[in-house]
Design brief:
Blueprint lengths: L3 E7 L9 E6 L12 H10 L5 H4 L1 H10 L2 H22 L17 H11 L3 E6 L17 E8 L2 H4 L5 H27 L4 E4 L9 H6 L4 E2 L5 E2 L7 E8 L13 H8 L1 H5 L10 E3 L2 E3 L4 H10 L5 H4 L2 H5 L1 H11 L8 H4 L1 E3 L3 E3 L19 H14 L7 H19 L12
Antiparallel strand pairs: 1-2, 3-4, 4-8, 5-8, 6-7, 9-10, 11-12
Helix pairs in contact: 3-11, 4-7, 5-7, 16-17
This protein binds iron/sulfur cluster (2 copies).
One iron/sulfur cluster (SF4) binds next to helix 11 and helix 12.
């Protein structure tokens, strides 16, 4: 039996459930929230501002559509069709005026938290809208100083089948549900007398996890996801920013920063070998850094993959059970079992603990960066190879190049990846 360092009291999983207490062993204690160097976070956000994948990675965002199965393709098109109006509605929410005058001096944190929980959000927290984590192309869009962090629980059962189309259904379904419910929650905030801007989960305005950690709703796992107390990385996340009078929550040390270095299940089970065993310092934060170029080819080809979500014990059992087990035994609940670590990959079969699929180098060769940059690389290759003559055919090739670049740079960023005629 290990010595308990501190205990954390959290609301129950759904609205109306009794509170829970999570005991964190002394040997797992580090700091509340995240280990970071604020000066470095400031430096990187100022000199190398974060940018959205929808802006900087258009090449692989277009490529993924070429490797989807027919089933995934149909699923994505249907999701995009249903989701597009929800995203469009969120875009203008910052311009809607409050529907009433606020009660002077009244703090409305309790009212908003209760309303959000009643509406179905599993985790609700308040913190400063941290502009250091807002994407460059969204900096002028974001209007208000406070962030309401909202997490919705993705369904348990289908998630355990990942990677599968059965798990992708609820993944996208949650985004639509929470996106629509947030529009209603924003109306409620306006009825209290304040502005409310909805940051859609499918049109992200920035990296949201740091604000969730600051609001005490979890800590960053080695899988690169927020590990929330009740449903771990099944937390699908979004923000509402507001000028309402609210009180900020505090970051919490759930023991995850240390626990992940011991657990390592997601690192061991990742089919793409995209997760790191050791932490590094990245943009002023000490973390396990996901290697995007190794994850993306797997995610795209195998139904969003999500093995790293599925095999996480915090997702499967909840943090309280995981910490209780660790206090009692000093070991990781479920580690080494087929139930936690096993998964099947379409056309490749079942992989139990210690067994991983293998992919050759070609599998990982996918387009990276912006579409227009790839075109330019292609043009340079043609010039190098003497394939661009000074005659009419060369002029035509340059005109085509110009037209294709113009098409790319005239398109507004689209966080859904591609515009379908729906
Ligand atoms: S989604 Fe799959 S490939 Fe990507 S990090 Fe997670 S387990 Fe690895
Ligand atoms: S599987 Fe283990 S190491 Fe990975 S995020 Fe979950 S708790 Fe951390």
């Amino acid at each position: 039996m290990l010595k308990v360092g501190h205990s954390i009291r959290r609301p129950g999983r759904v609205h109306g459930d009794t509170d829970i207490t999570i005991d964190v062993p002394e040997e797992l204690e580090t700091v509340p929230g995240v280990v970071q160097s604020p000066k470095e976070v400031d430096f990187y956000s100022r000199e190398y501002p974060l940018e959205s994948q929808a802006v900087d990675m258009t090449a692989d965002r277009d490529w993924v559509w070429s490797v989807y199965t027919d089933e995934v393709l149909e699923h994505r098109k249907e999701h995009d069709k249903l989701n597009r109006p929800i995203i469009a509605a969120a875009k203008d929410t910052g311009d809607i005026e409050p529907a009433a005058a606020p009660v002077p001096g009244k703090d409305v944190t309790v009212e908003i938290r209760q309303k959000a929980r009643e509406m179905g959000f599993g985790e609700v927290g308040f913190t400063s809208l941290d502009r250091r984590y807002i994407f460059k192309f969204k900096r002028d869009w974001v209007k208000f100083p406070h962030a309401i962090c909202l997490a919705w629980e993705q369904d348990y059962e289908p998630t355990q089948t990942a990677p599968s189309i059965e798990a992708e259904g609820p993944h996208h379904g949650v985004y639509r549900t929470m996106g629509a419910v947030a529009l209603d929650l924003a109306d409620y905030i306006r009825s209290l007398g304040y502005h409310a801007q909805v940051h859609s989960p499918n049109d992200n305005s920035g990296a949201y996890i740091p604000m969730f950690v600051a609001a005490g709703l979890g800590q960053l796992g080695a899988n690169g996801q927020l590990l929330s107390p009740h449903f771990g990385s099944r937390a699908r996340i979004m923000l509402i920013s507001t000028d309402a009078q609210v009180t900020y929550d505090e970051p919490v040390d759930y023991g995850i920063h240390s626990f992940c270095t011991i657990c390592q299940v997601c690192v061991n089970r990742c089919p793409g070998r995209a997760l790191m065993r050791d932490k590094v310092w990245w943009r002023g934060v000490e973390k396990h850094k996901l290697i995007y170029r190794r994850c993306r080819p797997v995610m795209a080809r195998y139904e969003g993959c999500a093995v790293c979500m599925k095999v996480c014990p915090v997702q499967r059992y909840g943090l309280k059970a995981v910490m209780d087990h660790y206090v009692e035994t000093g070991s990781v609940l479920g580690k080494g079992t087929h139930l936690l670590e096993g998964y099947s990959i379409r056309e490749m079969g079942y992989f139990g603990p210690g067994d991983l699929p293998r992919f050759n180098n070609e599998f990982f060769q996918i387009p990276h960066g912006k579409n227009e940059d790839l075109l330019f690389e292609d043009l340079k290759d043609r010039i190098r190879e003497g394939d661009l003559s000074d005659d009419a055919s060369g002029t035509l090739a340059l005109r085509e190049f110009k037209q294709r670049v113009a098409n790319y740079i005239s398109q507004p960023p689209d966080d859904m990846g591609r515009s379908w005629d729906v």
